[in-house]
Structures are given as structure tokens and as C-alpha cells.
Amino acid sequence: MLLQLGQVPAIIVSSPQVAKEVMKTHDVVFASRPHFPPAQIISYNYRDIVFSPYGDSWKQLRKICVSELLSAKRVQSFQSIREKSKIYSLMYGITSRAAFGNRSRDQEAFASVRGEITKLMSGFNIADMFPSVGLLQWLTGYKSQVEKLHQEADRIVKNIINEHKKRKATLKICKIGDDEDLVDVLLKI
């Protein structure tokens, strides 16, 4: 079934047979996400793993994520975090610890900003229904809210990256070890 939500077409898959067609047979056709201005801001023009269009760049991001963040050894190392965390904070806690390590003092601030971004982007906004009317993004204040949160997230991530660089220079870490997190791996790459 095809629904038209403002200017945005939405396909509703209501049978197992059609779901199989979409998810298996035609998965590449449905792999990319539609244009979404807030996501474009947050993801640096769709350059992250979540909003990146299907292609070589996305495949490379996925490969890094699977081999470094989701490896059996890395997932096992966060068993105690998973057992102690509440469901809501589980996603942010595990992801930020795996990505940034235990050393960053900005982890909680980053998780808070990501939570605000998620709330803002997942809520209803009339501007999302009419993406060609860019003026709606400005009139609703939506774009300025997203840009403000994006700048705050950038500031925090920049601090985390600088902490990692400083730590690496101080400790002269040259080999891959259990003490590395995703930021260390990405800085090497």
C-alpha cells in the first residue's frame, strides 16, 4: 500500500510475501533512506553509517563497525555494562563506552545531546512532510534546533578526539590492544 504523507511517499508492507520481496529480493533498492534535512545536518551530508546511501562508502563504514565495534571480543568485553545498565541507557552506554572508552569525561554530555537529537528528529514536524518547502524548516525553528545540537555534539566529539590524541602521544600506544576503543581505531585508519 502506498501512502502519501504530504510530499513524502510511504510504502506499507502488510504481508510476509511482500516483506520477503522487499527485504531479500529488492533490498538494494530500499537500502537508502529518503532526503531528510535534519539527518543531512547531523550526518555531515549523509556521510555516517545510519544515513549514508548504499554504496562503497557505506560498505566500508559497515566493515569498520562490524570488525571493530561489534566483534565477539569487543561485545564480550561489555558484558558487565549490559548487565548493569537500564534498557533506555543501554544503547547510549554501550555505544559510547565502546566508541570512546572509559576515559572520556564528556560521555554523559554526548549521550544527553544524542538523546535530544533523537527526540527532536523522531517527533512529528510539519516541515518533514513538505521537504521541498525549505522555509518551513526556518519558520518552525526546527533547523536552528538541529544545528545547535549538532554544534554541541561536534564540540564534545572534538574534545573526545583531542583527549585520545593527547593520551596516545603521552603513552605512545603503538599496538592494538584491549585498551583501544573505536576512536583509537578510527584515528589509526
Low-confidence runs of at least 5 consecutive residues: none
Shape: globular
Count of individual domains: 2
Q: What number is the mean pLDDT?
A: 80
Tell me what portion of residues adopts beta-strand conformation: under 5%
**Widest β-sheet, arrangement of strands:** 1-2
| Class by SSE composition | mainly alpha
The helix/strand order is EEHHHHHHHHHHH
Rg to the nearest angstrom? 19 Å
Q: Can you describe what's shown?
A:
This protein is mainly α and 189 residues long. It has two domains: 1-30, no CATH class; 34-188, no CATH class. Helices cover 63% and strands 4% of the residues. It has eleven helices and two strands. It has helices at residues 16-25, 37-42, 56-69, 72-77, 79-84, 87-100, 107-122, 126-129, 134-139, 142-171, 182-188, and strands at residues 2-5, 8-11. Strands 1-2 form a two-stranded antiparallel ribbon. Helix 6 (87-100) crosses helix 7 (107-122) and helix 7 packs antiparallel against helix 10. The protein is globular and about 55 Å long. The N and C termini lie far apart (44 Å).
